[in-house]
Design a protein that fits this description.
The complex is a heterodimer of chains A (about 475) and B (about 180).
Chain A lengths: L1 H11 L16 H13 L5 H27 L14 H25 L9 H22 L25 H34 L3 H10 L7 H34 L11 H27 L8 H31 L3 H12 L3 H18 L3 H4 L2 H27 L15 H24 L5 H7 L7 H5 L4
Helix pairs in contact in A: 3-15, 4-5, 4-8, 4-9, 4-14, 5-6, 5-15, 6-7, 6-8, 8-9, 9-10, 9-14, 10-11, 10-12, 11-12, 12-14
Chain B lengths: L6 E8 L2 H13 L5 E4 L5 H6 L7 H27 L12 H27 L15 H4 L5 E6 L7 H9 L5 E6 L1
Antiparallel strand pairs in B: 1-3, 1-4, 2-3
Helix pairs in contact in B: 3-4
The chains are: A mainly alpha (about 475), B alpha+beta (about 180).
């Protein structure tokens, strides 16, 4: 019994390091570089890429149409009104930005924790962050009604002599999200500079050499440069970590600072952050599983990565479950009539179905099955779970926004909420935009950080014996 | 003012990082100072071997962060107390706890930008042209799978013939002369 238990494990331990293998054996500096750079440098774009890009682009046109109509008619085309003044726009904003958080978590927090398995997935997780922030940032901007006056949100000297109100969580959001977008882009770009150097040197066409040469900023891999680069990466990771936690915290303040039952609670910041990471890892899986299959990257994004992401989802899922539990508990323990009515209404009111969709997708399905190693390493199942959790997390935001707003203190002011076709088109359109942007990334940029993968290969180990041979 | 013609240096190619580190340590030991290692991924030991231990990126980041927090906090204070005082539910105009959040975000923003752009500036990047790119084997290997040690002509010990012999004694795969 014992031997059969040990055998498969031995196979997974890398003899060179004594640690679990995260990259398939037999890879060299050259093979890894070739594999990743070829995907981008090949003159032959796979037909499947065009097909997917076509679909993504077609879906993104919904967004174009919906936005055009919105700019012509105003936000009245959406279902938002009193009492539900925050509808799809805010739901989608929170959902998208939450998805982005996993990218930062993978690139920054796991770097600080020295989780080297992240090296294979951090680049496209960061790309996912940026495209998710693009989609997220769109929503508040179009929700303000007159998007061409969006710059009024920024503090700048103007002829009207007015300034923003710094006590408002909505203004805090402006700074949190704009900082997050900027730092994410900078971190992503700096991370790619050495890889651009590789692309420049491996490209065959003049145009590719020229363009990658330009964006590589003349990177030549000097030891001095690398050390400053490593310091800067570590500092950026150290800065991005409190940033990512603060962004979703500030977003939760948009709700928690209000006095509305269902919003006015101190559990929101941690519960929002955990939910963001939960949905973000789900989105990383949704992207990683087809990608590694399509580009045959199973040797670099291994089953172990999928398994680890399943574990992170299990952990964050339980934090989210604790958040849901606490909301129910506080509704009873606060002895506030409004709080307990809100919870009863959320569960059993006319929109109670959305609460149960959320519980099924976020708790019932993933948190019971992700315990199983067999299911965590089953690729079709993990893909299924990723879709389920993404759906569940969207419904979480729907429940928070809509079921708190539509029946507040005064029954005379109660209303309902039914999204219009423009709401749906805008939302679905951002999914198309995200897909199209991500496909462009996969086609034109190295989706796996080559320099970081090289560090993990057995050949990268410095042998002290060999070094000591230097006689003096 | 560095010379713009003639020899930039001598470039030795190695197959493994250990060979490079050994050679760099030896060269440093023998009194070479103007030299650099080129690797396809960060090799901390190589930087140690050429005597590069510290860098100024953390200091720049700290200065950036302090500037960010000072800029935003004073902007908020000035706007809320002097430029455009608003009475929000009777709260004091100088409601500093609320100001912490944007100030915190700007600390991170300025520190992050200082880290990234400071690193590039200290590295002297972008530099799209560099003499090393003239070496026939440099571009093929330095960003993929080869390890290089360059002894620069600016070092007082440099002599084209002698130094080439010296480098060959360090058992590289090849030694080439790099021209400006």
């Amino acid at each position: 019994m014992a031997t059969t238990d040990l055998k498969p494990k031995d196979h997974e331990i890398d003899p060179a390091t004594g640690e679990y293998r995260v990259i398939a054996p037999g890879q060299t500096f050259k093979s890894v570089t070739e594999k990743i750079a070829r995907i981008v440098l090949t003159p032959h774009t796979p037909l499947g890429w065009f097909a997917l890009f076509g679909v993504g682009g077609a879906v993104a046109t919904f967004l174009l149409v919906a936005l055009t109509w919105l700019f012509l008619k105003g936000t009245g085309i959406w279902a938002i009104s009193q009492p539900v003044a925050w509808g799809f726009a805010i739901i989608n904003f929170v959902w998208w930005i939450g998805i982005g958080h996993a990218g930062t978590l993978i690139s920054a927090i796991l770097l600080l924790f020295k989780q080297s398995w992240r090296n294979s997935i951090n680049r496209f997780a960061e790309a996912m962050t940026i495209f998710a922030v693009v989609c997220a940032g769109l929503f508040p901007l179009i929700h303000i009604g007159r998007p061409w006056l969006g710059y009024w949100l920024l503090p700048y000297p103007n002829t009207m002599n007015v300034w923003p109100q710094f006590r408002s969580p909505l203004l805090w959001d402006v700074f949190a999200v704009s900082t997050y977008a900027t730092i994410s882009v900078v971190f992503w770009y700096i991370g790619m500079v050495p890889d651009f150097g590789t692309m420049r040197d491996r490209a065959d066409s003049k145009l590719a050499q020229y363009v990658y040469g330009l964006v590589s900023l003349g990177w030549r891999g000097s030891a001095r440069h690398w050390m400053r680069y490593e310091t800067a990466s570590l500092l950026l990771a150290g800065l991005a970590t409190p940033l990512v936690l603060s962004v979703h915290t500030v977003i939760s303040f948009d709700f928690a600072v209000a006095v509305l039952p269902g919003w006015h609670t101190t559990i929101f910041p941690p519960y929002f952050v955990a939910g963001a990471i939960y949905s973000g890892f789900a989105m990383v899986l949704t992207l990683a599983i087809p990608l590694r299959k399509f580009y045959h990257l199973e040797g670099l994004v291994t089953d172990r990565h999928i398994d680890n992401m399943g574990k992170v989802m299990l952990a964050t899922g339980f934090i989210v479950a604790y958040g849901y539990g606490m909301e129910v508990f506080m509704a009873w323990y606060s002895a506030s009539h409004w709080e307990s009515f809100m919870m009863w209404n959320r569960m059993f009111g006319p929109m109670g179905w959305s609460y149960w969709v959320l519980i099924t997708c976020n708790l019932a399905i993933p948190l019971t099955t992700l315990w199983s190693r067999k299911l965590r390493t089953s690729i079709p199942y993990m893909f299924f779970i990723s879709i389920v959790v993404n759906t569940g997390m969207w419904f979480e935001r729907f429940v928070i926004v809509v079921t708190s707003l539509y029946r507040d203190f005064l029954p005379s002011s109660w209303g309902t909420y039914r999204a219009t076709k423009w709401d749906y088109m805008t939302y679905v359109g951002t999914l198309g935009l995200f897909t199209a942007l991500f496909l462009l990334f996969v086609r034109f940029l190295p989706m796996i950080p080559m320099s970081e993968i090289r560090m993990m290969l057995p050949g990268a180990k410095i042998t002290p014996k060999k070094v000591a041979e230097a006689g003096d | 003012m560095p010379p713009r013609e003639g020899t930039y240096g001598l470039l030795a190619e190695f197959d493994t990082p250990s060979d490079l580190v050994r050679a760099a340590q030896q060269a440093r030991h023998d009194g070479w100072r103007r030299m650099d290692c080129y690797t396809p991924y960060p090799v901390e030991e190589a930087a140690e071997a050429i005597g590069f231990h510290r860098n100024k990126v953390p200091l720049l980041t700290l200065i950036g962060g302090l500037m960010g927090v000072a800029a935003m906090f004073s902007l908020e204070t000035w706007v809320s107390t002097l430029a455009y005082p608003l009475n929000i539910g009777g709260r004091p105009t100088y409601s500093w706890p609320a100001f912490i959040i944007p100030a915190y975000e700007w600390t991170i923003l300025f520190a992050g930008l200082s880290a990234a752009f400071g690193m590039l500036a200290l590295n002297g990047l972008p530099t799209l042209y560099h003499p090393l790119f003239n070496a026939p084997n440099f571009r093929d290997g330095a960003t993929t799978d080869k390890f290089f040690l360059c002894l620069e002509a600016l070092d007082p010990k440099f002599d084209l013939v002698e130094s080439k012999k010296y480098l060959e004694g360090l058992q590289p795969v090849s030694v080439v002369e790099v021209e400006y």
